[in-house]
Amino acid sequence: MDIIWSNASSGRERPPWLLLIKNGEVIPFEGATVPGVVTVREGPRKGGHAVYRLALDHGVRPVPGYDGVNAHASVEELRFALCGAYGPFLSWEDASRAFGLPVPVVQAFLRGSRPKIAEVIERADAAAPFMSLESLRDETLSSDVAAELIERAVARGLAGWIGHPDREDIALRALVVIDCVIDGRKITERLANAALAFTELFTTAKLFPFGPSVSRRAGSIRQSVILRLRALRESIRNEQVDAVNHFDDDRMTPRDP
Fold it and tell me: Which of 5, 25, 27 lies closest to 16, judged by CA?
């Protein structure tokens, strides 16, 4: 398959690029033939920008695009080139699906040749388990699914999230969501335990060095949530004990023949 590609900059002097994907590998086109991938049939010419006519080998996926005016814009340009729609990558898994390649391959390519884009995705990926808590606002989710989402946020998200520059905003949003969950859902012991584990993360000042105003708000919400969850968990346990005792009483009560 032949394609035409130009290295002319777009508006605002945004440099163009061309990625060639084949056999699980991403190869940036650098103006020369790459055996088994691409053959340069024409170009470059003297003066101005170059227009290339390229013959792609079988199985090569061409991805042409432009850099953005900053790192976040470059991420959106990359997503548009891969998917045909602008937007951020929410995680490494999200980027992997766009490339159609395994996560380690995408990470290695972007960290090596597009480090600023990789840094933006790293930040989004670190916050992804916490941002997924927004789906807890859906009251049709079962208590077990809600508990699993919270458990995943605690288990997967904490280590990479400690240094996240947007952690204050994400923490407040997550706490507010947990607070809403208590009001709008049947609370099971598993859900109460998961929510408690999440909210109690905020007791570690070294992990979450909030500013004074944020600390007061986060601390107030956290304390309210913890007290209510502990009361709910205790109520659940008492109901379970009462149910067991009632069952035992029924078994021991003599019945008329």
Answer: 5
Residue 100 has which token pair?
Answer: 């159609």
> Per this entry, what is the length of the chain?
257
Four-residue CA torsion sign, 146, 148, 150, 156: negative
**In angstroms, rounded to a whole number, what is the distance separating the alpha carbons of residues 205 and 215?**
9
Sheet containing strand 38-42, edge to edge, reads 2-6, 51-56, 38-42
Going by C-alpha positions, the residue among 57, 55, 110 that lies closest to residue 82 is 110
Longest dimension (CA), the chain: 108
Q: Report the alpha-carbon distance of residue 134 to residue 117 in Å, rounded.
A: 25
Instruction: Find how far residue 25's CA is from the centre of its chain.
Output: 23
CB 145 within 8 A of CB 100: no
- Please check whether residue 84 is in contact with residue 40, taking contact to mean a CB–CB distance below 8 angstroms: no
pLDDT digits (tens, 9 = 90+) for 36-73: 999 988 876 655 567 888 999 999 999 999 998 888 88
Whole-angstrom distance, CA of residue 119 vs CA of residue 78: 14
Domain ranges of the chain: 2-113, 127-252
